Amino acid sequence: SDGSIRLHQMTSEYPLMQWNDSTNGQPVIALRWALTRPAVFFVLDASSNIYIWDLLENDLLPVAKQTIPSENVVTMTLLGEPEKTNGLLGIALAKESGQIDIQYVKRKWALP
C-alpha cells in the first residue's frame, strides 16, 4: 500500500532486496514477472503507471515508466510463451470501464 516492493527467497522470511517508495508512494496494484526474461518484472500502481524493472540493467530503479492516459487501469497481466525465443511479450491492461488494452513490450525487455 505504500509503494514498496520486496524480493524474497522462498527459504527466508527476510527480503533479498527491498525498494522503498518505488512508485512515489502510490499503492502497488499488480506485479508480474516477465514470462520470457527472468530478470524483468512489471509493476502497476494506483495512478495507472507501469514501471519496468530489469534487474540485470539496474537493480536500484526501474528502467522505464509508462503512464496509461485517459482512465484508470485496475489490473494487468502478461502474455507470452516462455518456451519460444521470438521476443514477443504483451501486457493486457483491464480498465475501469471494462475495456481491455493489449500492448507489446519492447524486444529488449522480452528477449531471453
UniProtKB/TrEMBL annotation:
GO molecular function annotation: dynein heavy chain binding; dynein light chain binding
Biological process terms in GO annotation: intraciliary transport
Gene Ontology CC, one term: cilium
InterPro entries in the record: DYNC2I1, WD40_repeat_dom_sf
Signal peptide, first to last residue: none
Protein name according to UniProt: WDR60 protein
Species for this entry: Rynchops niger (Black skimmer)
Record lineage: Eukaryota, Metazoa, Chordata, Craniata, Vertebrata
Gene responsible for this protein: Wdr60
